[in-house]
Write a structure and sequence with these properties.
The N and C termini lie far apart (49 Å). This protein is an alpha/beta fold. It contains 15 helices and 15 strands. 39% of the residues lie in helices and 16% in strands. The strands form three sheets. Strands 4, 5, 7, 8, 9, 10, 11, 12, 13 and 14 form a ten-stranded mixed β-sheet that branches. A three-stranded antiparallel β-sheet has the order 1-2-3. Strands 6-15 form a two-stranded parallel sheet. 47% of the residues are buried. Bound molecules: cobalt (II) ion (CO). Cobalt (II) ion binds next to loops.
Length: 405
Amino acid sequence: MLEITDVRAILTAPAGIDLVVVKVETSEPELYGLGCATYTQRASAVGYAVDHYLKPLLVGRDPRRIEDIWQSVTGSAYWRNGPVLNNALSGVDEALWDITGKLAGLPVYQLLGGKCREAATVYRHADGRTLEEVEEKARALMADGITHVRCQFGGYGGSGAVPPGAAPDWATSGVVGPVAVFDPAVYARNTRRLFDHMRSALGDEVELLHDVHERLAPPDAVRLASDLDQYRLFFLEDALSPEHPEWWPRLRQHSVTPIAMGELFNHPLEWQPLIQAQLIDYLRIHISQIGGITPARKVTHLCETYGVRTAWHGPGDVSPVGHAAQVHLDLAAPNFGIQEWAGIDERLQEVFPGSPQLIGGAVTVSDAPGLGVDLDEEAAKRFPIRDRLPGWTHTRLPDGTAVRP
Ligand code: CO
């Protein structure tokens, strides 16, 4: 009988970002699976949950009973839908899909219903400290065949980021811990200037996107969305925070720009009402954050019913195993919209052979059975995690108020 013999978390940071990957081994020699469990801001907590809580629940069980394992492991914690445990479970879930694909001799997209397209169109990211710098980066991406460009002025602190030299005294005193100072009014003004510049410089054919990163108060976000309508964005991302669902209808009343939302979602009640009321156009969940391929597949079908498309969250804090899981879903989903693509550099390729490949403006996976990505554990050891928090999660307004980043 085929059974799970070991479950463990592997933590590594080949590109300087802490990644968590779960390896599930079985009683069949050489048959194992890998899954992404990356919650980079709490990487060690996820690793602990995998090794100390999930392994004892799973050893001895049949790895092909994916749905049953997902349901019973979720219930075993009693308190559920939180990011640490969802990520831990995602690592196991994706590994089980990987194992089942290897057993069947089929890539995971075949288990999901087969290809609806040959490759998944991506958007890539252009930012800079000046309008010209953003334009230059966008042009370089377009020259490489990228058709969809997300433009940010001033990087992820946005153009509202206050440089350390100009920060108020309280910000450098240490009393309130680490600080990234951000001015929402400056950000909103500069974002209007950015798209005015980009549209006139690049013309109408390129698709432009923007991420508000929930950095504005709800009425200011509504006004920005309305002001940006004239630039015909492909979508506007995270205009509101998950804590303000009551504002989505108002945003719809005032803007025709397509809306993308969801990288912070953990709980089904965060996405179900928005999809059913058609208040968003693209759902961009961080797949490991909701528990892996098993729930993501169901969310995809729910979206299809309501005319919402997928745009899974694909930054550098998703492992190449997690990127592969997304692309398998992208290929098999009739309602695929677009895929965020942060890129997989040489160090990541070395640790994760078989990673998805970007060809022109689209990404694809190999036809190898399972997810198609392996993990070189010796190489992974050369890139230990740092377990330190990135600066942008410590955002405060110019008067010192702590806000969500
Ligand atoms: Co985002």
